[in-house]
Amino acid sequence: MPNKPSIEGRTKGVEALYEKPGHLVRRANQISMAIFAKECSELDLTSVQYAALTAICDCDGIDATRLSGLIALDRATIGGVMDRLETKGWVHRKPSQSDRRIKALHISASGKALLEAAGPKVDEVQKRLLAPLSPDEQQTFLQLLTKLVLLGNENSRAPQKELDAQPLKEDAA
Amino acid sequence: MPNKPSIEGRTKGVEALYEKPGHLVRRANQISMAIFAKECSELDLTSVQYAALTAICDCDGIDATRLSGLIALDRATIGGVMDRLETKGWVHRKPSQSDRRIKALHISASGKALLEAAGPKVDEVQKRLLAPLSPDEQQTFLQLLTKLVLLGNENSRAPQKELDAQPLKEDAA
DNA sequence: TGCTGATAGTATGTATGCTGAATAAAAATA
DNA sequence: TATTTTTATTCAGCATACATACTATCAGCA
Lengths: 173, 173
Known about the structure:
2 copies of one chain form a homodimer. The first copy, chain A, has a single domain, classed as Orthogonal Bundle (Arc Repressor Mutant, subunit A), CATH 1.10.10. Chain A is mainly alpha-helical. In chain A, helix 3 crosses helix 7 and helix 4 crosses helix 7. Chain A starts with a helix and ends in a 21-residue tail after the last helix. Chains A and B meet through helix 2, helix 3, helix 4, helix 7 and helix 8 of A and helix 1, helix 2, helix 3, helix 6 and helix 7 of B. The structure holds a DNA duplex.
């Protein structure tokens, strides 16, 4: 992607930007989100919403704080995401009996149906995102990216956390 | 990151998420931005603002639409970014004489000073982001990430574009 | 010259993503 | 038991990010 000779000297600083990992990661995320949006627009579903729904489906009755750790979504952001999922009827919140601070999260039938419909499309997103790389390169890339994310986990405000206990039976299903 | 045996079956769907490139790329960007924020918070500078300033410094008199292509920043987002840069006194906008639709962008002295102060910190961000990988791995990772971003470029709404002409001399410095 | 299509900038509305603070309830402890 | 600390949620506010639409202007062309 060379610029024309006439501006070569002047764009040096910008081209330094193109090599910076931070910039490249931002671009990759931009591309990933764009592909997701195209693929799932008719479902009215974002990638964050898909992640949240997947987690709630798996961990029925989970609370927002633990969900936040599971999918590495900022705690303060989750409220709005849940509002939208609830508006679309895919999730409902039920106050916990044992801890009145908690609102247990449950997926609805339509939420499950949506998850199933989205599954193949989400897989297609991953395929298209990695398409520029050969199968070998894809494997290497994923391995390195996983390492980077795992070991860099604590640097983000919303580090991924494993579930240290299952939700109370009372809040499940 | 195994979960306790008791919930192993239930979290299977969530763990599938952890292997998805889209999720990993989102996490990597999250981590990258967090490191940048920590490193540059005392400068009151975000990574997007740094990218924009770098480009404006290099291409004095550039207009917002071309800047958008240079750093792959959504056209509709640039207005707000420029507002904030102008408020902080790092950039000023000057109406073009030859095309009254255009507002040429210029970096100020304090903007240049800030860029110089930020330079080492931004380099440190890149180092910390890649720190989980060995030198060899870092090189491989950057190479694959660059390939992915270059070839996936057209998938995003704000694809990176090279400058096809320099700004009119009239609008420069 | 007058019309038409393309372009630059802006505005509106939605969705993350984060900081910091406020509130309420539970847990720990003196 | 009373006090302190921790925890769960929410809210206000700022900064991207994107879709869509609107205005002003420019450029090409009949």
